[in-house]
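Revision sheet: structure tokens.
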Amino acid sequence: MVSRMFRMETGVDKERRDLLHVRLRDANTRASPVLRSLRGTPGEREVPLHVWALDDADAVAGGLVGYTWAGWLHVTYLWVDDRYRGAGLGSRLLASAERLSVEERGCRSSRLETWDFQAPEFYKKQGYEVVCVIPDYPPGITEYTLTKRLA
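Predicted:
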């Protein structure tokens, strides 16, 4: 075994970050037949998916921001103004995103993260199942990852 000395650096470096991303993507593609089969297809790219609910004054009453990738819908944000909560708007936003992801992008599954004080019970009512629980992330809060089969 050869012992080598390395100089360690810290700091944000966009060029090195991009280099690392390319090298990791290439290594993952070589190692995984699934990822290799995605290369060069539309499923390889993350494609934004946004759904907005506007009130009578065209103000945002709620919205969902996410993306699709590799046959999955990833819900990044889902928010409903306090004035409209409990009226089914969140369910409608989520259902719209799921429908679009299936019909227009061929998605078969959905995933999201939420904290214990946010909406894990809401998502369970929408058919999502908890697949990961991370206690104390951040300290004093539990994070949940949930998934749902769409098609």
